[in-house]
Each structure stands twice: as structure tokens, then as C-alpha cells.
């Protein structure tokens, strides 16, 4: 039996570069649709660049597109995104761009027009009302953060029952 197409949302896309593909999912079930670079670019070690993808989208209100790195390029070459994940707002109509960075300490990264450089994950988001108060409700974590539960090992016990 053929798998039903689970695509739930249509997103309008303008191809600013008609010779390059639309964002596309590599497999059924993938969360990320791959984006390509429209330009050849070489990133020296530590260098970053704003790379055009040749697409502009109109997301319905209530949805956001997040620009994520591709893990294979990160693992093999140290390629990542400076502001990962990038946020594409539903009202944005400009070209989607990717702020690539080469984290490799030694090797340059050469990208060619049409290479898949990032992936777009489209999600619902909430807009909230920020209600100002003087005191926040208690919680078990409280203001502990930034390693308060310990490092790589098992979490340090904490909370109301813990005695030093
Ligand atoms: O990786 C990204 C991140 C952002 N954008 C576009 C879409 C987004 O809606 C707009 C603004 O992004 P953001 O809010 O992150 O940037 P900002 O520095 O806060 O700019 P602004 O003052 O325009 O909001 O830039 C991209 O194309 N790629
Ligand atoms: Mg902003």
C-alpha cells in the first residue's frame, strides 16, 4: 500500500534562481528540507559568510522556519551556522540566507553553487503575553543553571531533600 503523503501545510515559495531546486526533503519523515547555495564560496578556517539560497517563502502566521546546520557537513568539515538555528519569521519575504561558518582549525571549505548547505525546519510557534510580576512562582530548579547539576558525570543531587 503506498504511504499517504503526510504533508500538512502548503508554503508558497518563489525561486529567485530558477535553475536551482526548491527546498526538498531527502526522505519521507525528514524534518528538514535541504537548502542550497546559489554561489560558489570558499570559507577559510574560522571564516563566516552570508550565503544566499535562491528562495523566498511566505509562511502562514503561527509558523516559523528554522535554519539548521546539516550534521554530515558539520562532522566531516566543521561547517556550521553562526546563529544556529536561524529564525525566518512568517512575515519575512526576502531571500533566505544562511550564515555559514567554518569551524575547522586548518582546512578551508569549498562550496559550489547547488550544494546543499543547510536545512529548513518548519514549526508552529506560540506568541505569548508577557505579564510583568514582582515575584515568580517557586520551582524545583529555581535559579540554578549553567552547570548547577554537575559536569559530564551523573547529576549532583539537588532540591529540597538534598543535604550538603
Ligand atoms: O538564518 C537566517 C536568519 C534570518 N533570516 C531572515 C529572516 C528573518 O525573518 C530575518 C530577520 O532575522 P532575525 O530576527 O534573526 O535578525 P535580526 O538581527 O533580529 O534582524 P531584524 O532586526 O530585521 O529582525 O532575516 C534569514 O534569512 N536567515
Ligand atoms: Mg529580529
Which features characterize this protein?
1 helix, 12 strands, 164 residues, magnesium ion binding, Deoxyuridine 5'-Triphosphate Nucleotidohydrolase, Chain A, 4% helix, Deoxyuridine 5'-triphosphate nucleotidohydrolase, 5-stranded antiparallel beta sheet, binds deoxyuridine-5'-triphosphate, nucleotide metabolism, binds magnesium ion, dUTP diphosphatase activity, globular, mainly beta
Describe the protein.
This protein has one helix and twelve strands. 4% of the residues lie in helices and 32% in strands. It is globular, with a radius of gyration of 21 Å. By secondary structure, the chain is mainly β. It has one helix at 71-77; strands spanning 12-15, 24-25, 32-36, 41-43, 48-52, 55-58, 63-68, 79-81, 86-88, 97-102, 109-111, 116-124. It has a domain at 12-124: Deoxyuridine triphosphatase (dUTPase) (Deoxyuridine 5'-Triphosphate Nucleotidohydrolase, Chain A). The chain has a five-stranded antiparallel β-sheet, with no helix packed on it. A three-stranded antiparallel β-sheet has the order 5-10-8. It has a two-stranded antiparallel ribbon with strand order 1-6. A hairpin with a 6-residue loop joins β2 and β3. Deoxyuridine-5'-triphosphate (DUT) is lined by residues 67, 83, 86-89, 92, 96-99. This enzyme is involved in nucleotide metabolism: it produces dUMP, the immediate precursor of thymidine nucleotides and it decreases the intracellular concentration of dUTP so that uracil cannot be incorporated into DNA. It catalyses: dUTP + H2O = dUMP + diphosphate + H(+).
Amino acid at each position: 500500500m503506498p504511504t499517504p503523503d503526510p504533508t500538512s501545510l502548503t508554503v508558497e515559495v518563489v525561486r529567485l534562481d530558477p535553475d536551482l531546486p526548491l527546498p526538498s526533503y531527502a526522505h519521507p519523515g525528514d524534518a528538514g528540507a535541504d537548502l542550497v547555495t546559489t554561489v560558489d564560496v570558499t570559507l577559510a578556517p574560522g571564516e563566516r559568510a552570508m550565503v544566499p539560497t535562491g528562495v523566498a517563502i511566505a509562511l502562514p502566521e503561527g509558523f516559523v522556519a528554522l535554519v539548521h546546520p546539516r550534521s554530515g557537513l558539520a562532522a566531516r568539515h566543521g561547517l556550521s551556522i553562526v546563529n544556529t538555528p536561524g529564525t525566518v519569521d512568517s512575515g519575512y519575504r526576502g531571500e533566505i540566507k544562511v550564515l555559514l561558518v567554518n569551524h575547522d582549525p586548518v582546512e578551508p571549505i569549498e562550496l559550489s553553487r547547488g550544494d546543499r548547505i543547510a536545512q529548513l525546519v518548519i514549526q508552529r510557534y506560540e506568541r505569548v503575553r508577557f505579564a510583568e510580576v514582582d515575584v515568580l512562582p517557586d520551582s524545583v530548579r529555581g535559579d540554578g543553571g549553567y552547570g548547577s547539576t554537575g559536569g559530564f558525570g551523573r547529576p549532583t543531587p539537588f532540591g529540597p531533600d538534598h543535604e550538603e
